[in-house]
């Protein structure tokens, strides 16, 4: 019996948490309550213990070794593509601790936290604007923000990502790339539709641009 009790004592406690998904970071921080940085030993459990010990209900791990706490998400943080969170936790390489400007988000409640997207004009649908070229010299035709997904990119997913970021123009490129902007660059030119012929990584029945070519849409 003593051996059995000793074995049970070695089993770690089940974490009282819900995984909400991969969320975007914002310049002023999505979770502003407290932070803990440890690029050598960070795990999800370490972050949970730090945050719940300070009575915070939500915690997220970012860039492998960064832990942030709060009771609500700041405006502008919202669900991102799950593959954006792909950096292993240094203290437990079998688990993921966010990514660059991305939080693997957890909390004590079964319900995901309320998100408040960046403000934008009232819109209801997307309108296709054609196939357009990228800009020469390293600039972007849509220069607002971007997202990538090798397995889940679709036109609606890109549209939602850009709208939540506060941008009404969006374009899909090279099958898995999503770009957002306030307007299309004047240095981008309209090109033949045949140039935008790469299937979307998350929906092979639709096209998501091509090499240096954008399938461009606008929220209206």
UniProtKB/TrEMBL annotation:
Keywords: Repeat, Signal. The keyword Repeat applies. Residues 1-16 form the signal peptide. InterPro entries: Sialate-O-sulfotransferase, WSC_carb-bd. PROSITE patterns: WSC. The keyword Signal applies. Residues 16-109, 125-220 form the WSC domain. This is WSC domain-containing protein. It comes from Thermothelomyces thermophilus (strain ATCC 42464 / BCRC 31852 / DSM 1799).
